[in-house]
Design goal:
heterodimer; A: 277 residues; MetI-like fold; B: 335 residues; 0% strand
Chain lengths: 277, 335
């Protein structure tokens, strides 16, 4: 109980983060079951119906129910965001872990590569990749992960350099443990206290970036009910059906808010010295 | 200083070469066929092959890269497949629009973040502090493109206060080009009517970028200033009877600003990227919207050119930040 409070209900923002994130997860699970409409079903008789009794969030220009689209779309949107951070983190951890432990030329080369990747405004790098392999959710995940991994690689490398000097790493070395095992069994688990909060916060950023991709037509394509793609489609009708843009945006906003606050809270709980940064 | 600059320029060259490599190979090893895109969907197979030879796309990639790099040394980025104009010319006509938008946003963003962050720190745990902290968290969570649409809806459609897009109303010619920045050019020429029109057109896109990006910096400014105010030298300054205002402005603020400058440099990248979406929404005739157009039409050399220009601008901004960092804060070692 105390642990739950420490990690998830530290103060008002932390409780807000936990509750909003749980709400979003609940919406993902219950939402699709709670609606009687198919997210892709076209009903030309019910075009751009404002929110009301029959469609609580209204309908789009093809008469598709927006609540249902948001509920099913949550899996595309959150799934994309989660996939981006997990892929980027996995690659970043491996690269950063090896570079930090090995040092020398490998470390040097890898850090210079990170410099190059980080000196792009990320969206341009991602746009090039999307141009190269086409638009869609898969390319979006790949493109964003490729431009994000250096952030994780740098962070993990920095931590590994400190941890590898510790006594227990020395003793693992002296009993002849293989370097790969030392890195992944002993050192990397120690970095998780920093990495997990970063991943949680990263979900929000990834959600904004990925939905932005859909917004400019490089990510999820219509009629996939991804939230950014919905806003993009809705932007054509923003003046006569503002709810079509407003509602999906609020869902993105709340998800990002929830996961960033939760990430902050985990960060403060695991690394109290970083409070307020 | 000279040594530091030389070192930075050397690493800059390395980074630029790295960027050309990534950009070039990503755009030239793609499964999609640019020759097909350039020749048009109705072209026959022979016509597509002809186009491929004409564009030099039939040669091995490394040869294409070498000839591209040779051109780059003379500021030649090749020609747009679509408009047949040199890429450098296409970019230079749009660069000023993007830079005017980005620089105005960065300046306002910096001032706003500094101001809000300081107020929050000085009024710690008061209502205004809580409000500013809530604002900064919310600003980080709001998708900038969505905010832009909402602002457009409220301030243009509902309130009719501001124009919905473009740099000037349709049919109004821009000022004679000196810098390409409408604000600067119209002011230099004393055309204040045009100046205020340009300002009006800038408000919505700038606001969307600023609100969307200033949260994290505001928060950091607050933390930094709070940390500085706890330091011994502040206590000394206060105890020798200095007034509160100079203590905060001349001592604490000055030291708190340096890390914020670094942050500003990093944020600039996000903001340059953000212009892609914002320019699309406000029909801003800049590089961002052009990049988008070129991606959708597979205009490879244009995409490569824009990406490189954007990356170089980003690197230069960070270089300027680093230099000003040293000038402001002598504690920073030039290593």
């Amino acid at each position: 109980m105390k642990t739950i409070k420490k990690y998830f209900f530290r103060d008002i923002p932390s409780a807000m983060g936990t509750i909003i994130s749980l709400g979003i997860i609940l919406f993902m699970i219950i939402g699709p079951a709670a609606t009687k409409y198919d997210p892709l079903e076209v009903d030309m008789g019910a075009k751009l119906v404002a929110p009301g009794a029959s469609h609580i969030f209204g309908t789009d220009e093809m008469g598709r129910d927006l609540f249902s689209r948001l509920a099913y779309g949550s899996w595309y949107s959150m799934g994309t965001a989660l996939a981006v951070v997990l892929l980027a983190a996995a690659f970043g951890i491996v690269a950063g872990g090896i570079a930090g432990y090995a040092g020398g030329w490998f470390d040097n080369v890898l850090m210079r590569i990170c410099d190059v990747f980080l000196s792009f405004p990320q969206i341009f790098l991602a746009m090039i990749i999307a141009a190269a392999i086409g638009a869609g959710i898969g390319p979006t995940i790949f493109a964003l992960a490729v431009s994000w991994w250096p952030n994780y690689a740098r962070m993990v490398r920095g931590m590994v350099i400190v941890i590898k000097e510790k006594l227990y790493v020395e003793s693992a070395k002296s009993i002849g443990m293989h370097p790969v095992r030392i890195i992944f069994r002993i050192i990397i688990p120690q970095t998780m206290s920093m990495v997990i909060p970063q991943i949680t916060m990263g979900i929000g950023n990834a959600l904004i970036a990925a939905s932005g991709f859909s917004f400019i037509g490089l990510g999820a394509q219509m009629p996939t009910p991804e939230w950014g793609a919905m806003i993009s489609q809705g932007s054509r009708y923003v003046f006569n059906a503002p709810y079509y843009v407003v509602i999906p945006g609020i869902f993105i906003f709340l998800s990002v808010l929830g996961f960033s606050l939760l990430g902050d809270s985990l960060q403060e709980a695991t690394n109290p010295e970083l409070k307020n940064i | 200083m000279a040594k530091f600059l030389a070192k930075r320029f050397l690493s800059l060259i390395f980074v630029v070469i790295g960027i050309t490599l990534i950009v070039f190979f990503a755009t030239h090893c793609l499964p999609a066929d640019p020759a097909r895109a350039a020749a048009g969907p109705s072209a026959s197979k022979e016509q597509v092959e002809e186009k491929r030879v004409e564009l030099g796309l039939d040669k091995p990639v490394y040869e294409q890269y070498i000839s591209y790099m040779k051109g780059l040394l003379h500021f030649d980025m090749g020609k747009s497949y679509k408009s047949k104009q040199p890429v450098t010319k296409e970019i230079s006509t749009r660069l000023a629009a993007t830079m005017e938008l980005t620089i105005s946003s960065l300046v306002i963003f910096f001032i706003l973040a500094l101001l809000l962050g300081s107020i929050a720190a000085l009024k710690r745990n008061k209502l205004v502090d809580h409000m500013i902290r809530f604002f900064s968290v919310a600003s980080m969570a709001v998708p900038p493109y969505w905010l832009a649409l909402i602002l457009q809806y409220v301030l243009y459609y509902k309130a009719s206060l501001l124009p919905a897009g473009y740099r000037l109303p349709v049919g109004v010619a821009g000022p004679d080009t000196i810098t390409g920045f409408y604000l600067l050019d119209s002011a230099l020429q004393g055309n204040w009517e045009l100046f205020f029109l340009s300002v009006k057109h800038l408000v919505l896109p700038v606001l969307s970028l600023v609100i969307g990006y200033c949260g994290i910096t505001t928060r950091m400014m607050r933390t930094q200033l709070l940390q500085e105010l706890r330091q011994d030298y502040i206590r000394t300054a206060r105890s020798k009877g200095l007034l509160e205002r100079p203590v905060i402005l001349r001592h604490a603020m000055k030291n708190a600003i340096s890390p914020i400058l670094t942050m500003l440099g990093m944020q600039a990248g996000g903001m340059i990227g953000g212009t892609v979406l914002i320019e699309k929404i406000f029909s801003w005739p800049g590089l961002g919207s052009y990049a988008l157009e070129s991606i959708l039409s597979m205009d490879l050399l244009v995409i490569a050119g824009i990406t490189m220009v954007m990356a170089i601008i980003f690197i230069l901004i960070n270089l300027i930040v680093d230099i000003s960092y040293i000038l402001i804060d002598p504690r920073v070692r030039l290593s």
